[in-house]
Amino acid sequence: MVQCPKCKTKLSKPQKIWKHRELDVHFFVCNNCGTRFREYMRNGETKYTLMLKDSHYRKV
Question: Which domain holds residue 41?
Answer without folding.
Answer: 2-59
